[in-house]
Write a structure and sequence with these properties.
Helices cover 59% and strands 15% of the residues. The relative contact order is 0.07. It is built from 13 helices and eleven strands. It folds into three domains: 102 residues, no CATH class; 167 residues, 2-Layer Sandwich (Tetrahydropterin Synthase, Chain A), CATH 3.30.479.30; 116 residues, no CATH class.
């Protein structure tokens, strides 16, 4: 039989001895109290209250306060006047109140979730049968990682090999990740937990801080790409750091001095989710914004240039049309005046469908416009005369106007 098992057996026997002793003492007190109340009731016949009933109620209340059943999912510890006596396994116990009392804790694996959970993970944690043993610390856990150049290397060969391996990896840069960390442990001595931390919730908070601190320390000497590539080694390194903190039975600290133990056995410390590389995603988002802005500006400039080019083309076309119309108007006016001298006003007025007087006035206006060098646009009826006479006469047969 090993020393450890002998100690456990002694602790268990201590709890049984205290329980049996307390129960025997309580039964003696109950009997004495009941007999005393009966005797007093017999001697004092005028008593309005049956003291035997009062004594029975007091005994029953004390028995309820003293008796404790530790179920199959719990382990406990017995204390007297604030001092721990022994650890207790599952089963019925009797601690004489108020000299003795029993405190219980979970026997299940205690699971600490550090960092923001996804909705699915949170819902799963709530629905677990052992959800009372799951403790959530949902504050964002942002971890600052070193980069490829500033990371710690055990040797120059390792540095050279890893620089060659991760030199083009964006996760080898200095990043900030929203990491999620899980720690699992079980209690083997609730007395030790109370001695070292005061209570289980306080112990859980201290273990959470120790695990977070260990991860921050590691991240300051490494980078994300290396951590992902060697995740099992990272988890084992973190587990050893937490084991040393609580003096786990498998740690060197426990071997040096078992009294340092917190009474817990660290089962697992694991990075369950590395999270988004915050600076990398922000840099990519900023790069995307710059690219989008550059494209938008290029599109805007192209649209402005195209608009200006189109406006210039339309303006030039309108100028050509205007000049062509003005040139055609002057040519038609000169030809009309020549036709008038050649054919006579009466015949041209007849072709135009107007009176000779009105026709003459229109010709005078055209003649003044030609003399002044103004733009000429013929009325529709005069344009018809030019078209008819153009077919009849050729330019060489006309005599120039003087």
């Amino acid at each position: 039989m090993t020393t450890e098992s002998r100690e456990d057996k002694m602790k268990k026997h201590t709890g049984l001895v205290v329980s049996v002793t307390s129960l025997g003492l309580s039964v003696g007190i109950y009997v004495a109290l009941f007999l005393g109340a009966s005797l007093y009731q017999y001697l004092v016949e005028t008593s309005e209250i049956d003291l035997r009933i009062v004594a029975g109620a007091i005994c029953l209340a004390h028995f309820v306060l003293s008796a404790t059943i530790i179920n199959e999912r719990q382990r406990g510890a017995m204390f007297t006047l604030g001092l721990p006596i022994c650890d207790l396994e599952s089963g019925p116990y009797f601690a004489f109140f108020p000299l003795f009392y029993i405190r219980t804790a979970t026997r299940n694996i205690v699971q600490i979730e550090i960092g923001v959970l996804t909705p699915e993970e949170r819902e799963k944690a709530k629905t677990l049968e052992s959800s009372a043993s799951v403790f959530l610390f949902e504050e964002p856990l942002h971890i600052n990682w070193a980069d490829l150049k500033s990371a710690h290397y055990d040797s120059s060969e390792q540095k050279k090999a890893e620089i060659e391996r991760f030199k083009n990896n964006p996760l080898a840069e200095a990043l900030v990740t929203a990491t999620h960390l899980t720690v699992r442990f079980e209690i083997f001595s609730y007395i030790a937990v109370v001695r070292k931390a005061g209570s289980l919730p306080e112990a859980i908070e201290l273990i959470q801080k120790a695990a977070t601190s260990a991860l921050i320390t590691y991240a300051g000497k490494s980078f994300v790409a290396r951590a992902i590539a060697n995740m099992e080694d990272v988890d084992e390194w973190l587990k050893k750091r937490v084991e040393d903190f609580v003096a786990d039975p498998g740690s060197d600290r426990y071997k040096e001095d078992p009294t340092r133990s917190w009474g817990v056995n660290i089962r697992k410390t694991q990075i369950t989710r590395m999270g988004t590389a915050k600076r990398l995603s922000e840099a990519q988002a900023d790069k995307g914004k710059v690219i989008y802005a550059a494209h938008a500006e290029r599109f805007r400039l192209e649209e402005v240039a195209a608009g200006e080019a189109e406006a210039t083309r339309i303006k030039a076309l309108s100028e050509r049309i205007k000049l062509a119309q003005e040139g055609a108007g002057r040519a038609d006016a000169e030809r009309l005046l020549l036709f008038a001298r050649q054919e006579g006003f009466a015949k041209l007025a007849e072709l135009a469908g107007t009176t000779v007087g009105q026709f003459v006035l229109q010709l005078e206006v055209l003649e003044k416009g030609l003399s002044a060098g103004k733009a000429i646009v013929l009325p529709m009826e005069l344009s018809r005369i030019v078209n008819v006479l153009s077919e009849k006469f050729t330019p060489s047969s006309l005599t120039p106007l003087k």
